[in-house]
Structure formats: C-alpha cells, structure tokens
Amino acid sequence: MKRGLGSRRAARFGVVGAVLACACALGFGASPVHAGRGAVIVPPSVVHTSWRSPEMMTKDAQPRHDVLRDRAFEALEAYENAVASKDPRVADRYQRALASVVSIVAARTFVSRSEMLAAWQSTSSRHQKAILVGLTTLGAGYLFGSDNPKKGLDCSGLVAYAWAKAGVSLPMKSDRQIDQSREVSRAEARAGVIVGYPGHTMIYLGVGDIVLHSARPNLGVRVGPINWRESPNVRFADPAPES
Q1: Does residue 107 carry a pLDDT above 60?
Q2: Pairing of strands 200-204, 194-197
Q3: Which class is domain 67-238?
C-alpha cells in the first residue's frame, strides 16, 4: 500500500517538475514546441523568429530559397536559348517557362494571371529579360550603393543590374535613372519599365500597382505593390523605348 502511495506521489512530482521545466524554458526564451503523435512540431512563427542563419535567411527572416526565383532562372535560360535558335519549339518552351513565372507572381500578388501574362508577352523581349533577371535576385539582402546581387542590392542597384543584363546601362542614382529614360504615362507603361518616386526606383510588372524592388534594409528584393501613400509623385520611365 505504501509503495503504491509512494509511486503516485512520485508520478505527481514528476508531472509538476516537467511543467516547471517547460515554464522555465519558455520564460528564458526557448522556442515553444508542441508534440503530435510522438513528433515535435515547431510552429512556423517560431522558426521565423528564432532561426536567423545569415546564410539561409534574409534580413526579414524569410528563407532564401524561393521557387519563383528558380522558375525565373529557368525562364531566363529558355529566353537565351530562344534568342539563339530559330526553332519554334525552342521559342514555345520559353513561352511556357514565362507563363510558369507569371502564374506564381500573379498568385502571390492577387492579380489576374491572364492580364499579367498578356502584359509580359506584349512588352519587348528586352523588357522581358530585365524582368526575369530582376526576379533571379529575389531574396537578396539590401545593401546601399550595390548592384551586385551576391552582396546585396539597393533600389537603383537592382534596376541597374537587371537592365544592364538586358543591354541598357543606367546610373546608380534613382532620380537619374528616371531622368535618363523616356518618361511615359501610367497608361503607356509597359511591363519592365522603371517606376519611381523621389529616392526610390522599381521595376514595373505590368498590372495594377505590382512592382519588383529592393525595398529597404530590413526587406531586400521582393515583389509587391507600390506604396502610393508614401509619395503621390510616382513616375514611369522606359529605359529602352525604341525596343
């Protein structure tokens, strides 16, 4: 009888000890986890706030690997093959790769896939290449004054890098990039043109307010909407109006 009572007391003390250990761990900043059928499951919110390896994560704690970036690299390779070949099948492979990229961008930005695909297909091949090159830098961190995606990019650095690969040299100053290009109205703006307001330039993705840009130090290169509230003086300019 005493043995049974002692066992129950030991079990209760064990449970209390486990609870106190968990409480202490949480109190001292350990990542909270919960178990399901014997497996330890870490909530995504915990991963994003506690795992900040600079080799694997961007400054806003997002994984550097991005399927959209992968598809952009594939589409860029298909673009180069299509340019070098007269085979219509090669050109068709590029169009399918381009459509795959558009599908992901449209889904992420909640815009019409058909509208975005039409916008990208109707712009020049040079503009298409600038967009695809820009998308291959997704996840790169922000680095002021840099146009090297391996180190980081600022806003004008991203625009200059993407358009340099498309054969157009642009200065590393956001206002000068607009001034050097031919200004167009929003209605005339094609996918791939520069969007800018004082102190910031972006690459327009052809539908609504969607742009590709190196946002700011805690964000880096990403796709998203123009922040119209930040400046009412948004301008559109085409670096290659003749193409």
Answers
A1: yes
A2: antiparallel
A3: alpha beta
Q: Which of 24-28, 92-96, 212-216 has the lowest mean pLDDT?
A: 24-28
CA distance 57 to 50: 11
d(CA 7, CA 1): 10
220 DSSP 8-state letter:
-
Tokens of 91: 């050109």
Q: Name the residue type at position 227.
A: N
Distances (CA, A) of 63 to 5, 6, 66, 141, 214: 53, 51, 7, 12, 16
Residue among 147, 144, 173 nearest 162 (CA)? 147
Strands (E), 107-217: 147-148, 152-153, 182-184, 194-197, 200-204, 210-214
Q: Token pair 């007391």 is at which residue?
A: 9
Assign 3-state DSSP to the chain and report helix, strand, coil percentages, each to 5.
45, 15, 40
**Domain layout of the chain by residue ranges:** 67-238
Q: How far apart are CA 135 and CA 223, in angstroms?
A: 8
The single-letter DSSP state of residue 63 is B
Residues 162-167 have a mean pLDDT of: 98
Do 134 and 162 touch, CB atoms closer than 8 A? yes
- The whole-model pTM stands at 0.74
List phi, psi (to 5°) of 35.
-105, 145
CA 37, CA 165: separation in Å to the nearest integer?
52
Q: Structure tokens of 4?
A: 């049974």
What is the separation of C-alpha 168 from the centre of its chain, rounded to a whole number of angstroms? 23
| Residue 135 CB-half CA count within 13 A | 30
